[in-house]
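User: Some background: our group keeps a shared notebook of sequences we're curious about, and every so often someone picks one and asks for a predicted structure to add to the entry. Today it's my turn. The entry only has the sequence so far, pasted here. Could you supply the structure so I can complete it?
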Amino acid sequence: MHVSHPLIKEGLLESRQYQEAILAKAAETNLMVVLPTGLGKTPIAVMLVVQRLDKFPESKVMVLAPTKPLVSQHHKTFLNFLNIPAEDMQVVTGSVKAEKRKDLYETKKLLFATPQTIRNDIENNIFSFENYSLLVIDEIHHGVGEYAYPYLAGVYMKQSKNPRILGLTASPSSENQKIREICESCHIEEIEIKTETDADVAPYVKGKRVDWIEVELPQTFVQIRDILNNALTERVERLQRLGFIRRTKATKRVLLDLQSKIFGKIKAGNRSLFNYLSYATEAIKIEHALTLIETQGIRSLENYFRKLRTEKSGMRLLEDRKMSNAMFLSNKLAESGASHPKMARLLEVVNRQLTENRDAKIIVFASYREMVKEIVSALQKLDLARPIEFVGQRGLSQKEQIRVIREFREGKYNILVGTSISEEGLDIPSMDIAIFYEPVPSEIRSIQRRGRVGRHAEGRIIILMTKNTRDEAYYWVAKNKEKKMKGLLYGMQQGVKQFGLASQNSEFPGKAGNEEK
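Assistant: Of course. Here's the predicted structure to add to the notebook entry:
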């Protein structure tokens, strides 16, 4: 059964009960929708657009997304679904000249834009939300701090005659405070969460089989790790004795917070803390080196050490005998051609998958750009593999990203190897198998990675994990955060008003409910 409406093309938009229920709520209140990737957040936005244009025929709609490729993707999706002339829909980004944008704002009905572009145009008095009856905020979990979303939501609620906000995300946060901040900053009044286990969602979910492949860290790697651990412990214990931290095992997050705190005191005039800032900075660098040796590989570590040798801030580390020893051993291993045991298992899995199914589509996630390059290089040696690198703007322009996805969809490549850019939002084709080169300590990234498989048929997820390392710790951190996030969101689903957010929602409390009839 499909949605039937004069503004929606016949037979294209499937009618799903849970989407209709969410739509009914979105029609009445500013809503944040939390749905796993692939379960149809965008169709809800499409149906709400139609509803708002029905109710306010002379109004306009704005769809915001964080990047140009995502904006273009939404534009394409709405063109596909809606019986609205293509000339009434327009992408607006910074690449369009300001005078041209001003004209587009006046003549177009549906606009798809990056948030910073709209912010700039509001501040330059060439754009107003006055006639906009709907603001769709995609990837609303970005809506905190100095990001443009909170500013735009505030201006929208102030300027719009008939405001309604729809926020979309697969995973906002596992932290109560951040969820509350998103709601308050973006004027969200209620939350609707659905997971793959909900009764009304389950019929639309294809199975996902998750396998873990565990490897042992080679003794040569362990030797370097032990040296680095000793060097890290020395610095952490020094900071502990000085009263800067309470525990001898400090996480990277603790160290980064400490570095920021000390730097702030130095900026305020306490220049006696420079040495302590150095201890914290060195500890962070060693912590990063440990992550690389445990979870990535010797080439990544050696490249990092090479970079440290050229940095002023890394010079003190070179004077440490432990660090120079670790660097020597790393260089020796790199020259021998050693690689992390996860790489061999990755190649084994990919080769077996492509041998069994030559048409298989595979995505490989890695956290670091250098690791992506190394994986692509290794995969190119397999007869059936056609891998392509997919990284952020420092590696590929947004135009190149769109081209890579198009060529992957057309079959030029059968393996997409990407960093976090391949996790969020972009309309990457559904994969047969997703391989995590490493677990990530983020519930948001973990959920987004999993969403790349099992959309149209049963998918498989393989997580490569080095035993007794940060890999294991990161896996459990993400799992616990995801469990906590779902608990928080279900608890808040009855409405964020009960948490006192609505009354604090800047200077426009309750306006969303006071539309012109």
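Suggested note for the entry: Confidence is low (pLDDT under 50) at residues 497-514. The first strand starts at residue 31 and ends at 34.
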